[in-house]
Amino acid sequence: MAKGARVDLERQHPILAKLQKIDGLARAVLQVAKAITELNTKAKIVIGVVEVLYKKVMEAGELYTKFSDLLDEMIHVLSVIDIAQKYVRLDRTKDILQEILKHTRQAALYVYKFCSLGHLTNAHQREIDDFKKHFNQLQEGYDRFINLEVLDIVYSGDKRDLLKFLSTLEHEDFDPKLKCLDGTRTALLAQITEWAESQTSQPFFCLTGPAGSGKSSIAISAVLQFKEKKMLGGNFFCNAGVASQRNSKNILPKLASMLAKKHGRFAKHLLHILREDTDDLPNSRDIMHQCQQLFDIPLRQITSGHDQHTFVLVVDALDECEGPETTAEILQALLQLSKIVPWLKVLLTSRPQKELHEFLDKEKEYILPFRLQLTESNEDILAFTKHNMKLLIADGLPAHYEDEKVFNQLAAKAKGLFIWSSTVFRYIFGKLSAEDRLKEVLHSDDLGQTAEAALDDLYAKILGKAIGDGSDRHLFMEVLGVMLTVYEPLAIKDISHLLSTTVSNPFLVVTKVCDYMQSVLYKGENAVVQFYHQSFSDFLTSEERCTKANLKVVFIDIKCCHVRNGIKALDLVTKNARFNICGIKSSYLPNSQVDGLEDKIQALPRYLVYSSLYWPQHITAAGFSPDQWSILQEKLETLFSGPELLYWLELVNLKKDLRTLMDSLPNLESCLSRKGLGGATYCKELLDFLHMFYMPITESTPHLYLSTLPFLPTESKMFKDVKPHFSQTVCLSSGQREKYGITQHQILVGSEVTSIAYSPDGQHIVSGSYDNTVRIWDAKTGQQLHELSGHSSQVNAVAYSPDAQHIVSGSYDNTVRIWDAKTGQQLHELSGHSSQVNAVAYSPNGQYIVSGSDDKIVRIWDAKSGQQLHELSGHTSYIESVAYSPDGQHIVSGSGDRTVRIWDAKSGKQIHGLSGHNGWVRSVAYSPDGQHIVSGSNDKTVRIWDAKSGQQLHEFSGHTGYIKSVAYSPDGQHIVSGSDDRTLRIWRPTHQWKDDGWVRTPSGGLLIWIPHEYRNGVIDQSYMVIPADAAGHGIVLDWTRFRHGERWTEVRNADAGQ
Prior knowledge:
Oligomer: single chain
């Protein structure tokens, strides 16, 4: 048949097109399976059957429409092979792929069989359903074999970088040896397994209990059980002593990473999200946004088949994450993801907390709670005691201790705390005085003691033995103080660097302390030292508990320890950070293309890296005396007024932690300003510097020097104190700015800003935040005027009414609310959306409200009655933003489908679709004259469009996070944008480049990055002239001394230190 005629026939008979696709997929398998006899043969058979069936369908006509669904299943499951073509060479997937081809052949033959019958009976329909069911089972079986290696092949080349954030999260965060002793906790572990396997149980299991009751051991045992049953979706063990494990923003990315390696279809859909968001999702402070992107969207695109395999996500010790607000956020996110699909469940453990109790009361319908009672642990502790006593006897303890009376006595002293028992045996094991120590424990008076008091007495006993006569007490306490207050565990050699200079032979001191304290400290991989349990830290830092245990001298004042750590870390950075510390040879390459850079970063001294990352946090947490404040001021002056400042920033940047530094600087500034220290000014300026130059610094380390120093404002301290040490840069012969420019105001809200809007008179700005509040600000000063509370989840959108009397807000709680702008009182609640409300806006006459939601519908409401009037359908993804045109005739909407759409407000018909953004369009707004539309996106750009033609006019860059809201000022001269980088920015829409700001060499190398204020110029051989501002004042760049490429290191003067 001629190709054209065949195409026409396939248009008339969709079934033929489906058969053609099956044929194509089978041929694709054949191309990559020639070396595998089994697959090669089966693929050829499928192709032959499909070709015969194709001819029969052309003869039989409409009969074959009855088999359409079955053919769809065949296409879907064969697509699995097409996606994993290269991977089919591996043995672990060969069997399942053979079965898919075999079943495809059988299904095709079945369809062919009924060609001559001319009709389809009920029995035949049941057989078709059985074929479809088996295809579903094959798909699910394949999901259990596939992992991210498959998708790494599918998304090869440049897209392979999308998997980097997943691989960086892959680390084991628990010790399997700390699981429950065999034969203990059997009833509880059986209950957890039964809950996980049940099809009707709640999706969320919450295990709570006091410190030391064995929750983590139970969680480890559950993880190992789920692994064995192939039910483990992922796990995260929180740890207050490890920065990465106490940071709540790491929980969901790690769980998503682990689940993706076990569920192929989830991994495939997740990677589509990562193509857009890979650089930001792991660092996003917006946990609900992480939940939506990493779980909600990918999971909802998976069509569950029959008997879907259940996976469990395990999160242990949530109480060890930072702050009560964080607890509430992650609890809500974990519950949300557990409700998305029936085959994904969550097991959580935590100490009892107020926020947790409130959460459990509110969400009773979805949560199965279990509270560990200490008295219920006695039998298991007795079994644990017997086991360890027998080991002691085998190790030389006299045999007469193998006595039930001794076992019961020792177990009773634990008072239900597993941590007491495990600590006691570590205290006794391996000591020459093991019997003496056992007697000491057995004969101790614990009558009437609480469990906590018994544990404290044990800790006091251990410390007393270690300290001895007290002559070395100050050394012990200094070492323990460092260990208590470091933000992540360090090795012995690194801890020794943080000790005061008065300690002689610090490495030996730390080593001996660790040896003496083996019952509460352990050395892990690479001699990294950690406390066995958080309860020991709690004891040492409680003056009351130390006093009650008759050992007040071991009390450790955390604030004093932070003083020592902060000043010592600051000293280490100032003296040891140096220029080009990793020896990068050329300035033309981004960091990602520098050979061996990651290995060099990993080889940097750990104490220096730690000090660079955490000295600001130590200073902020410290309690300084007046004399110590003076010392700190001197040290800050040394760091901030010389080239050492850039050497420090180089270290932080190489560790990819500039964002964390930017988060900590406002706290450091506040801390220093309260004491009137000049360092506060340095912090504020440094934050301006990092906001302005974040992009080139993070892309290429040499450009921390080359692309920042030429553009420093002349009134900045860095221009005066730091730049003179680096003379071989591009110089501005004229037109140098005096102050940091384009972002005219920066308002630190304190929570992620999700939405903002100007009041009609331009005097106020309203913002919506992740903390469930609506806030009103003075637009000139940035001062907060009101806080409106009422929403039960994050506020996604806000808008003023035209008369400025009311504010409307939309929330993750699926509601739209109307507020009195003056009093803050809630007036109305509009319900109707079936999913979260992402966008709201008033019509110009104030009579209508438009809203957009994850239900992909734009809805129009009567502002007075709350009645829904219209629905506008067309977007293919979540609607993120809506706005009315000034004349009320049109509505504009932005969506996760990356488009901006313009609608007729009366008819609901779409007028234009505007494409150009490379990420979700999170916010849209009309200019006051209705001629332009502004949009903000996950691609971190603000764009201006012609409202009539749909043409893109301008593009602004500068935010370092997703842009979640944009708006015009009433005079149309400014645009305000809000981002999850926790800033609001106000822009003038003039003279902006549409590219990324890099000036490149002819071969594509990174020559220099131009700040946003200075772009839109011309280049010749000797200088660059760039319009500086709207007035057209010229900027002249002198290139004559510029050192770049492999000579970039000459940028530094001889007096610039190391």
